[in-house]
Amino acid sequence: MKTSVYNCSVIEIDKHHHEKGNISVIENNNTVPFEVKRIYYLYDVPGGESRGGHAHKELRQLVVAASGSFDVTLDDGEVKRTFSLNRPYQGLLVVPGIWRELTNFSSGSVCLVLASMEYEESDYIREYEEFIDYKKQQK
Ligand code: TYD
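Above: inputs. Below: predicted complex with thymidine-5'-diphosphate.
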């Protein structure tokens, strides 16, 4: 299925207020519409650096600014949408077939990613031209 940036959205994550600090909880197939197979996080991103710059064929992800802030620009080959993430109780759901760039990392920010598959390099599309061709082939 040909996905679009409009299939991607920010979801609210369960948040428990507590005077000694808050807790947010993410549960498989409840908070996220997939089974989490892998968790990774980006941190110590140098100022001005960008990450991403690729698309996935099958991988679904929930991207959370666990600390600090950054921008995620999604691109389906036709439309681009930029989301500013800066709340640990919100997450951006990214469907397969979407090119993404992560920019404007604040100092000390942590980008937490929950993923639907284990790491598989063959799931990546790392060339933008190849991504555009891939999207054109899809119905
Ligand atoms: P990549 O996903 O390209 O980085 P980003 O999108 O954050 O810029 O990953 C960078 C490298 O890290 C990749 O070449 C291999 C390694 N890597 C793993 O080994 N396992 C993983 O789960 C991820 C996400 C990356």
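Residues 38, 40, 42, 51-52, 54, 119 surround thymidine-5'-diphosphate (CB under 6 Å).
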